[in-house]
Amino acid sequence: MELKVVKASVEKGEGLGWGKSLLVPSIQEILKNDSQSVPERYIQEPKDRPLISQNLFDSLQVPVIDFSMLAQKDANEIRKLDLACKEWGFFQIINHGVREETMVNMKAAMAAFFELPFQEKSKCAKAANEIQGYGQNFVVSEKQKLDWCDMMFLKTFPHETRNFKYWPLTLPGFKEAVEEYSTEIRKVSNKIDANLSVLMGMDENGLKRKLGEFQQGIRMNYYPTCSRPDLVLGISPHSDGSLFTLLLQDDEINGLQIKHKKVWIDAKPIRNSLVVNIGDAIEILSNGMYKSIEHRAISNEKKPRMSIATFVMPGDEVQIGPLDSMVNGKHLPRSYRNIKYIDYIRQKFANENAGKSSHRHC
Ligand code: OGA
Ligand code: NI
């Protein structure tokens, strides 16, 4: 009898959350014992290794969008945004309205967390069957190559999704910094959402009406230095499962690379900017007009790099599929099946980060 109940709840996916990931050692801790070490499990197959010295495409730049011009509904800037979404799936925004102090505090809070002794950080450790907390995600096999990165993932909106079990509440200022940053970023994401709604043939509230309240999750990535950055990857190639993602990266250190027309391009940091990328959910909703682009991060020998990725997502129970305004008989036939968002996300977390493997076309 008991077994049946358990089975039924597993089948319905109850209690499963978004997914799970095998527990792996902290690369930051491994390096504390031997800073030169490059353990086997982190060494990528030759075909997957980054070409660190390759600068052939240095002149290509991810498009920069002036957010204050979007607020003024500047037609030229809106066209630039549309082109950036179509041709790059990535853009950097400046004048986005998030105060510098908010970003500095968020970065400092994250740095303070990762500087804590391992024992302290471990109090926020994720469980194997959860994706929130400190550790690593997308590890599904013992044989898989590991990323040169430790991370901390927290759900931030709606409020009731916050699970403070995973928050370092005793770390002074951490909670406040995340609360302020996530609130400010939500304002920016609402404006992006309004612009994308219009570009996808709806009014400004189109996406909200279709999807309801968005969820927000923050992934803090800590990339330690590596004595052989040519052999490892900070984060393996992947596309994001979000609607879109806003990344706060280090102001100086290169690390993020995006696949543009089959080659890897550096998304060079611009001070105080945010990198925005289209995620899988907008690709599906836009019926493929806006593609979620593969990206990765490389490590470096000189300085640890930190980045903060904020994922904007539909609610778990929301069905996503091409918007009516993006499907038009013969001209724009429907290219994606409808799927409940949580099913999409579970599928994503059940696979390692390996390009765009979990995409569902018709
Ligand atoms: C991510 C991501 C890139 C970076 O967290 O999904 O792509 O530069 N991060 O840290
Ligand atoms: Ni990403």
Automatic annotation (TrEMBL):
PROSITE patterns: FE2OG_OXY. Keywords: Iron, Metal-binding, Oxidoreductase. It comes from the Eukaryota. Gene3D superfamilies: B-lactam Antibiotic, Isopenicillin N Synthase, Chain. Belongs to the iron/ascorbate-dependent oxidoreductase family. Residues 213-314 form the Fe2OG dioxygenase domain. PANTHER family: OXOGLUTARATE/IRON-DEPENDENT DIOXYGENASE (PTHR47991). SUPFAM superfamilies: Clavaminate synthase-like (SSF51197). GO terms for molecular function: metal ion binding; oxidoreductase activity. This is Fe2OG dioxygenase domain-containing protein. Coiled coil: none annotated.
